[in-house]
Specification:
By secondary structure, the protein is mostly helical. It is about 70% helix and about 5% strand. Helix 5 (about 100-125) runs antiparallel to helix 8, helix 9 (about 165-195) crosses helix 16 and helix 10 (about 200-225) packs across helix 16 (about 355-380). It is flat, with a radius of gyration of 26 Å. Mean pLDDT is about 85; it is low at about 1-20.
């Protein structure tokens, strides 16, 4: 049987037939290797992971300090790197076929999808800025048509690149690219959408996933005895349960400190006059201290009848619970993916951790949940956003809206008599 034709029939192959992906090289700095040379492999990995984790958390806090725009750039950078790691796996597996345009088309589709999503964000949140620049008005007005035309160009290029005897393989790779786009670009767009609702909706979910990852590893390292899932042999029930309780407590306490500052709770808005992102507002009821009565059981245990807390702290319990109970399944999914292609990590970007995708496999699932949670239980009418949309209308359209609104307010008796007529 012709070798190329046999390998092209991927749906008839077992997992053992899939060619091995070359393992990533060890990227641990030499100075760190020498410092830990006397330790066992288990403890060496512990220290490497711990040191790099602290370094990444420090950089993360620095970016938070630099503001919302830098966080958006961070999200975009992580998205591109995760996409690169997944696409590279596909390229390594099938590189021997020398198929045309696979990498070029993959990156082209990434640019197209990012152009679409970020264009939608600009039109949604930067309306007043766009209104002042005529060239941008054209791009925004026909944004979806331009995006569709760009995608059609890539689609036609793919059809033209089809090679006899490799049709099925090329369509597999076409699907590979689109699923990767769905996982990375769509989810990172939701992360930025959550950020615009207020930095707290960005920080608490992400920090909860990080906390769960760290505490589950610690509990599993010291107390783990019972395997949790076959896809990840090192995961244990002890780590899973310990991570759950630690994450819920962390999310509750962390949200208490964040809820006290406008910088974290106010929606992120763009000020066209200063050309800067601002986070200034009158905090909503979610971030105003309230008194709650405790259930009788807790009253008996704690000796308190009431407790003062922010309503957002109750929501943080829901976010932390998802991060610790459902979030890990994003990691299990990634583990299954890596086992399917016989690789240990997506890449070797971070010593002791693997690739960027190895650290953010749970974050993408969390981002979707937070977005759904906000739209289902939190988000209401946004006067500021509505006003921006009204300012884009033509003067006669704005006047029509004004007359209709004025008539409605007069009928409701809201306008003062002096303002009537």
């Amino acid at each position: 049987v012709d070798l190329e034709e046999r390998l092209g029939e991927l749906d008839l192959r077992s997992d053992s037939d899939i060619p091995d992906v070359p393992p990533p090289t060890d990227s641990t700095p030499e100075i760190l290797k020498r410092a830990l040379s006397g330790l066992s492999a288990r403890w060496k990995n512990w220290w490497i992971r711990g040191i790099l984790t602290l370094a990444m958390i420090s950089v993360f806090f620095l970016i938070i300090y630099l503001g919302s725009f830098m966080l958006m750039l961070l999200v975009l950078s992580i998205q591109v790197k995760c996409y690169h790691e997944i696409i590279t796996i596909g390229y390594r597996v099938y590189h021997s076929y020398d198929l045309p345009w696979f990498r070029s088309l993959s990156w082209y589709f990434l640019l197209c999808v990012n152009y679409f999503f970020y264009g939608e964000t600009v039109a949604d949140y930067f309306a007043t800025f766009v209104q002042r620049r005529e060239q941008l008005q054209f791009l925004i007005r026909y944004h979806r048509f331009i995006s569709f035309a760009l995608y059609l160009t890539g689609f036609c290029m793919f059809v033209l690149s089809l090679v006899k005897k490799h049709y099925r393989l090329q369509f597999y790779m076409f699907a590979w690219t689109h699923v990767t786009l769905l996982i990375t670009v769509t989810q990172s767009h939701l992360v930025i959408q959550n950020l615009f609702e207020g930095m707290i909706w960005f920080l608490v979910p992400i920090s909860s996933v990080i906390c769960n990852d760290i505490t589950a590893y610690i509990f599993g390292f010291f107390f783990g005895r019972t395997p949790l899932i076959k896809l990840s042999p090192k995961k244990t029930w002890e780590g899973f349960i310990g991570g759950f309780f630690s994450t819920v407590v962390f999310g509750f306490i962390f949200s208490y400190f964040l809820a006290q500052h406008q910088y974290f709770v106010c929606p992120v808005e763009y000020n066209s006059e200063t050309n800067r992102f601002v986070t200034e507002c009158e905090p909503s009821e979610l971030f105003q201290m309230k008194k709650y009565s405790l259930p009788p059981l807790l009253q008996a245990v704690l000796g308190w009848e009431t407790v003062n807390m922010y309503p957002f702290q109750m929501h943080s319990i829901a976010l932390s619970t998802f991060a610790s109970l459902i979030g890990p399944f994003g990691g299990f999914f990634a583990s299954g993916f890596k086992r399917a292609f016989k690789i240990k990590d997506f890449a070797d970007t971070i010593p002791g951790h693997g690739g960027i995708m190895d650290r953010f496999d749970c974050q993408y699932l969390m981002a979707t949940f937070v977005h759904v949670y906000i739209t289902s239980f939190i988000r209401g009418p946004n006067p500021s956003k509505l006003l921006k949309q009204l300012l884009i209308l033509q003067p006669e359209q704005q006047l029509s809206v004004y007359k209709t609104l004025k008539s409605h307010l007069v009928e409701k008796g809201i306008l003062q008599p002096s303002l009537r007529g």
